[in-house]
Automatic annotation (TrEMBL), chain A:
<dbReference type="GO" id="GO:0030131">
    <property type="term" value="C:clathrin adaptor complex"/>
</dbReference>
<dbReference type="InterPro" id="IPR036168">
    <property type="entry name" value="AP2_Mu_C_sf"/>
</dbReference>
<dbReference type="GO" id="GO:0030659">
    <property type="term" value="C:cytoplasmic vesicle membrane"/>
</dbReference>
<keyword id="KW-0813">Transport</keyword>
<dbReference type="GO" id="GO:0016192">
    <property type="term" value="P:vesicle-mediated transport"/>
</dbReference>
<protein>
    <submittedName>
        <fullName>LAQU0S01e10198g1_1</fullName>
    </submittedName>
</protein>
<feature type="domain" description="MHD">
    <location>
        <begin position="197"/>
        <end position="456"/>
    </location>
</feature>
<dbReference type="InterPro" id="IPR011012">
    <property type="entry name" value="Longin-like_dom_sf"/>
</dbReference>
<keyword id="KW-0472">Membrane</keyword>
From TrEMBL, chain B:
<keyword id="KW-0472">Membrane</keyword>
<comment type="similarity">
    <text>Belongs to the adaptor complexes large subunit family.</text>
</comment>
<keyword id="KW-0813">Transport</keyword>
<dbReference type="InterPro" id="IPR026739">
    <property type="entry name" value="AP_beta"/>
</dbReference>
<dbReference type="InterPro" id="IPR016024">
    <property type="entry name" value="ARM-type_fold"/>
</dbReference>
<dbReference type="GO" id="GO:0012505">
    <property type="term" value="C:endomembrane system"/>
</dbReference>
<dbReference type="GO" id="GO:0030117">
    <property type="term" value="C:membrane coat"/>
</dbReference>
<dbReference type="Pfam" id="PF01602">
    <property type="entry name" value="Adaptin_N"/>
</dbReference>
<dbReference type="GO" id="GO:0016192">
    <property type="term" value="P:vesicle-mediated transport"/>
</dbReference>
């Protein structure tokens, strides 16, 4: 039973609150209570659940994309996971509703009324009620803002030009309700959706989480733990009730038990590469899969699946043995020319104050020292060409061989056009349900990102 | 040509990238922010006049301001004082304003019941609105007002709405009943139960969802209500809303234990050997076995399979729990529930509750490690895992570790101990390492050696304590093997000056314990410690006193055993006794009360030759400090069985479950679940079975093909809509309310310059358009409006 919801920024300043009864505490009083019970210390990572009394608990969920923290006050739940999941769903709903990559505090403050309305629909009699996004959007109609108008204009421009139909360039795509049909075909799709511009986009995003281990004796790099976390985001702006078939080329990867959107549960036949569904209107997460890299037997297979960038290092070089060299292999690719925002973070064990990381030579980018003397960042330009081999040579002044040997690297970058696993969308077909004579625009995008990418 | 077009297109693409940012800025300037500034500038008096305005746009602005004030916790403005101004807008035509008023009432109605009643009449009127959304909102709003005198009216409205043609309205009935039940439990139970039965019998999945929430919150023990619907719900499960899926799985798990016979285990080598599943999974008598389930139980288990793909983590956990409770380990292992759980925890987690999932896995592992043993790697840490997750993962590792994988685990854990900065994680990693050490003798030696080198290498004092306690438990496990380790430790004592007090005390204590195994090396340690006694920290001094007493006690015992006649102990010539006396003497002048007291105690023991008491006190065997990570079923109601796992208390509650109570035979149980009559209120609706899309395959699941009884049901339901028993329930304030609602709102839509306002105008138009269409579509509700008017006049 939920009692109240709060949204704060990362400094715990209130952005929004929604109290479900007169007795629910305001965030101010809750915060004082929390401060007394569990004073926040800056270097500790946060809790997600705290019992205030025997039957009262505060749950906290830090948004993964926005700089916001979601809170709720709930009475004892039989399933302790439920409030956390609900807050996560709430976060996703807001993102979808405002159609943003991330939410800002000002966006939230400007839309207090809408968030309250959404939450009012999502929670009834203090229990989770409607959380299906299309349903929510029908209850709380969303409003376009200018950036979205321009966004859709540009895409429709290129679309129209491609179709040589310039007369309709400025007919911006916006769902209009077909008043005749109020009946929903499937519970997750709004009834009577009609677009002047039919388009659908598939974004496949994979996040690389891999911990590589370099053997002290042989210098060979092997994986200690590796996972590719993949998400297929779908955005459909299609009239009527289309049935879509999405085929993937999995390249022999085992997707295990992927999480699927409700819309493909019914027709799912155990083949994640062949999905058939009636999509909800708008953006939604179709599938969430994870590929286990630990089960790959051979080393070459591992390295062909951890993306374009693979780092390596050598230590104890030079006369004094305090030098090190970092080699980064950015392999060439047919699908993308560059990797973006490549940053390699070097770290040593905690060092005495007289030690200092000093760079002697580097082929790319620049080096930034951090506040702690054992951490440094090798920051590349915004775009680095693929098929290059950047090298950085540096030394750790006044350090022993043992201290240099503790070098660890963590890598972060993004690239478009190619996934580390090599998974591709083979085809997106609309089987039926679309009004005649409509040829929707289809777009597919691949993005690779790094999460925990470490070499130790 | 094509080339140039594509070039133009790509130019647009890049232009779009550029303009997007500018647009975002511009949009916020033009639209929301400027509106927000305008909204902020509304004065308290201005707000009142906006709320009282006849212009719907102004009312809307006013309500937006009220919503924003409610959301920002501003103590300077007292929102309660606007109660009357806000509440009378409940009769607005704008659904958004209605909803905002409902939110306001939800929060403030209790405070001012008299004024809240003012709104009731117009809310009641919208209960018969042609738009189903307005009806469900009205039902929600009226049930949200927590005023006791209103409950009969709510109950009456609910009874009327339960036969509504629109599913959302019937869905709201479930929630309204829940609110009623929460306020007045006992008095209304008899009224609510039959209504719940009606809701449960509904054909619409949405309505069933709300009925299940009501059932789980209000009547979790009335499992017999599910008899007739069990089989239907199993098919319906994937279509329910995700929260109801969660609750239904938990309810069904309980149901199965009460009304379905236990699964029967059949030995696969000899089919004649059968045994019902016992609560304790560890005493299954067969190595390999097949399981035969009752048809209904296996129907339930199969229906959950598909939901393992759910995006809701709580659902997946609930399924795993149901499998864990209802099936033997073999089925649980084959159910793929483990795979789905592992998918949830595959990525690094940052304080987002994944630790709870891991704790569930930990319990499953503690009962039967083989289920998760193939996922060993998944429980290795990521650098960004938060503390709770890391600790839970390490605990799981210690349940999964065996002789085949121990090498990999040990090398990983060594890395965590060496590199992690968080004391709690290091502590847990050390415990896991100790668990690894218990697997074999050589490992134990290897690990203690490694721990010693790290201790000597100098580590932070916080984790040093954990090092010592792990060393202690390893040495205690197999003391004779560890002579070398002890010798190394004595060297550490002598040479290391930066040992923290607690660590040093721990080592000294360890020697006291070790004296029972190998007495010879211990007195020398005491000899080394005595000269610096006064400079040692308090904990160390206490331990030195204890060590001296222990050594003396052992020496006395040894000498009595060796001298056959059992002669008196020669205290004068014994070196140990002399050292002990020296220590006791030094302790007499100690600052610390406790140390003085101890030394006095030991002195009097030994001086009065109470050697038996001394040996009882000082030579008692100590339990191992590291508890084994295994659990024995049943977990029923006994929270202490989880103690060694260190779980979150809520997870403990969640995972303790009742034992199987059904003991009838299979046919008797099947007969219970004869399908009950269902109710279908959607005569005009097409079924949503989407058979047009997926063919007959899914169509079967939905069982929407209406039974014969349903038409008569529907007719009956519509007849009962003319029910008019709220007659006579009149309020004096009603005329005032009518007064407000009768004022025609002038349509003063002006052309605005602000972009935002225009766009929301459009929204309004489209909404109105859809509303007017509604009226033409649904003709059946018109008669209701008439009947309502009859009542009121």
């Amino acid at each position: 039973m939920f009692l109240s919801f709060y949204i704060t920024d990362l400094e715990n300043a209130l952005v929004f609150q929604h109290l479900l009864s007169y007795d629910s505490p305001s965030f101010m009083s809750l915060w004082t209570k929390l401060q007394a019970m569990a004073p926040e210390s800056p270097n500790e990572d946060g809790w997600f659940k705290l019992s205030i009394s025997r039957s009262l608990q505060v749950y906290r969920y830090k948004s993964k994309t926005s700089k916001l923290i979601y809170w709720c006050l709930a009475t004892h739940q039989s399933n302790p996971l439920e409030p956390v999941v609900f807050l996560e769903v709430f976060d996703n709903t807001l993102l979808q509703y405002f159609d943003k990559e991330h939410l800002t505090v000002s966006k939230m403050i400007n839309n207090h009324d809408r968030i309250a309305l959404l939450l009012n629909c999502m929670v009834d009699s203090n229990e989770p009620a409607v959380t299906d996004f299309n349903h929510l959007r029908d209850m709380v109609p969303s409003r376009e803002d200018l950036s979205k108008v321009i966004n859709s204009t540009a895409s429709s421009l290129s679309n129209r030009i491609a179709q040589r139909n310039t007369s309709q360039v400025f007919n911006i795509g916006d769902p209009t309700k077909d008043p005749g049909t109020k009946e929903k075909l499937v519970p997750w799709r709004s009834a009577g959706v009609r677009y002047s511009n039919n388009e659908l986009y598939v974004d496949v995003v994979e996040t690389i989480h891999v911990v590589l281990r370099k053997s002290r004796k042989t210098g060979e790099v092997a994986s200690a733990r590796g996972t590719l976390d993949g998400v297929i985001d779908f955005r459909s702006h299609l009239s009527g009730n289309p049935v879509i078939a999405l085929n993937l080329r999995l390249r022999g990867h085992e997707l295990g038990i992927p999480a699927l959107h409700q819309c493909c549960l019914d027709s799912y036949k155990g083949r994640p590469d062949q999905l058939q569904f009636v999509p909800p209107d708008g953006k939604f997460q179709l599938m969430h899969y994870s590929i286990d890299l630990d089960s790959l037997q051979s080393r070459s297979k591992l390295f062909s699946n951890i993306g374009l960038v693979s780092p390596d290092y050598r230590t104890e070089l030079g006369d004094l043995g305090d030098e090190f060299e970092i080699n980064v292999n950015i392999s060439g690719s047919q699908h993308t020319k560059t990797v973006d925002d490549l940053v390699i973070t070097l770290s040593f064990e905690p060092l005495p104050s007289e030690c200092k990381i000093k760079v002697m030579r580097s082929t790319h980018g620049h080096f930034e020292n951090c506040a702690a003397n054992n951490v440094g960042k090798w920051v590349f330009d915004r775009e680095t060409l693929t098929g290059t081999l950047p090298v950085l040579r540096g030394c750790l002044e006044n350090a022993t061989r043992e201290q240099v040997r503790t070098l660890q690297l963590s890598v972060s970058y993004t690239n478009k056009g190619e996934l580390p696993s090599g998974i591709k969308v083979d085809s997106v077909d609309i089987l039926s349900g679309l009004p005649k004579n409509i040829k929707p625009f289809k777009g597919v995008k691949y993005i690779a990102k790094t999460g925990d990418f470490h070499l130790r | 040509m094509v080339d140039s077009i594509s070039r133009i297109a790509s130019a647009f693409e890049s232009a779009r990238e550029l303009t997007l940012e500018a647009a975002a800025v511009a949009a916020s300037r033009l639209g929301e922010s400027s509106y927000h500034r305008y909204s902020q500038s509304i004065t308290p008096e201005g707000l009142r006049s906006l709320l009282n305005s006849r212009n719907s746009r102004e009312v809307r602005d006013g309500m937006k301001r009220v919503a924003s004030l409610m959301a920002c916790d501003d103590p300077t403005i007292n929102l309660e004082s606007y109660f009357a101004d806000v509440v009378k807008n409940v009769s607005s035509d704008d659904v958004k304003v209605k909803r905002l008023v409902a939110i306001y009432m939800l929060r403030y109605a209790e405070k001012d019941p008299g004024l809240a009643l003012l709104a009731v009449n117009s809310v009641q009127r919208s209960l018969s609105d042609p738009d189903s959304e307005v009806r469900s909102l009205a039902l929600k709003a009226i049930s949200d007002i927590k005023i006791p005198s209103l409950y009969p009216i709510v109950l009456h409205s609910v009874k009327k709405a339960i036969t509504d043609a629109a599913a959302d309205v019937r869905c709201a009935v479930g929630f309204a009943l829940l609110k009623l039940y929460r306020e007045q439990r006992e008095e209304l139970t008899n009224d609510i139960l039959p209504l719940l039965q009606d809701l449960l019998a509904d054909l619409d999945p949405e309505v069933v969802s709300s009925a299940i929430i009501l059932m789980k919150e209000a009547f979790p023990d009335h499992l017999e209500l599910l008899h007739g619907h069990f089989r239907r719900y199993c098919g319906l499960l994937p279509q329910l809303c995700e929260w109801s899926q969660l609750y239904l799985i938990e309810l069904f798990a309980k149901y199965c234990k009460c009304f379905i016979p236990k699964p029967i285990l059949v030995d696969s080598s000899d089919a004649s050997l059968t045994v019902p599943l016992s609560d304790d999974f560890t005493d299954i008598p067969f190595a390999v076995y097949n399981v035969s389930y009752h048809a209904d139980l296996s129907l339930f288990l199969d229906s959950m399979q598909k939901l393992l793909h759910s995006q809701n983590a709580a659902v997946v956990v609930a399924i795993s729990k149901a499998y864990f409770e209802l099936t033997p380990p073999l089925t649980f292992k084959n159910s793929k529930a483990a795979d789905a759980l592992v998918r949830l925890i595959a990525v690094p987690s940052v304080a987002d509750g994944r630790a709870l999932i891991l704790q569930c896995i930990l319990v499953y592992c503690a009962v039967d490690p083989s289920t998760f043993s193939r996922f060993l790697n998944k429980f290795f840490l990521f650098p960004s895992d938060d503390t709770n997750t890391a600790i839970a993962k390490l605990k799981i590792l210690s349940t999964l570790v065996d002789l085949n994988n121990v090498k990999r685990v040990v090398s990983e854990i060594k890395y965590y101990i060496a590199n992690d900065q968080r004391p709690a994680v290091i502590q847990e990693a050390l415990n896991t390492l100790a668990g690894c050490g218990q697997l074999s003798r050589s490992l134990s030696l290897h690990i203690t050696k490694w721990l010693l080198t790290r201790m000597v290498g100098g580590i932070s004092s916080a984790s040093l304590d954990s090092f010592v306690s792990v060393l202690r438990s390893l040495i205690q496990e197999n003391p004779t093997e560890h002579l070398h380790t002890m010798l190394d430790l004595s060297r550490v004592l002598r040479t290391q000056d930066n040992l923290s007090g607690t660590a040093k005390a721990g080592i000294v204590w360890l020697f006291g314990e070790f004296s029972s195994i190998n007495f010879i090396i211990c007195p020398d340690v005491l000899r080394v410690l005595i000269p610096n006694f006064s400079r040692e920290p308090k904990e160390v001094r206490l331990q030195i006193v204890l060590l001296a007493a222990k050594l003396l006690s052992w020496e006395i015992d040894n000498s009595r055993n060796s001298s056959t006649e059992g002669g008196a102990f020669d205290a004068e010539n014994s070196r140990t006794a002399q050292m002990a006396r020296a220590v006791f003497y030094l302790a007499k002048f100690d600052d610390d009360f406790d140390i003085r007291d101890r030394s006095r105690l030991f002195c009097s023991l030994f001086d009065n030759e109470r050697y038996e008491i001394a040996s009882l006190l000082l030579q008692a065997p100590k339990p191992s400090s590291i508890a084994p990570m295994t659990l024995h079923m049943p977990l029923s109601g006994n929270a202490s069985s989880f103690a060694s796992l260190g779980l979150d208390p809520d997870t403990e509650d969640y995972l303790t479950f009742c034992s199987w109570t059904f003991d009838g035979d299979a046919d008797e149980s099947s007969a219970l679940r004869a399908p009950a009559q269902t109710k279908d209120y959607s005569r005009m609706k097409t079924s949503f079975s989407s058979s047009t899309f997926f063919g007959a395959k899914t169509g079967n699941n939905f069982s929407r093909d209406s039974p014969a009884a349903q038409t008569s049901d529907g007719a009956q339901s519509h007849a009962s809509r003319d029910f008019t028993s709220s007659a006579g329930r009149k309020y004096k304030l009603q005329s005032l309310d009518e007064f407000f609602s009768d004022i025609p709102v002038k349509d003063q839509r002006k052309r605005r310059v602000i972009v935002e306002e225009e766009s929301s105008d459009e929204g309004e138009i489209s909404q109105e358009a859809s509303e007017s269409d509604d009226i033409s579509v649904s003709s059946s509700t018109e008669s209701d409006t008439e009947s309502e008017i009859d009542v009121n006049t």
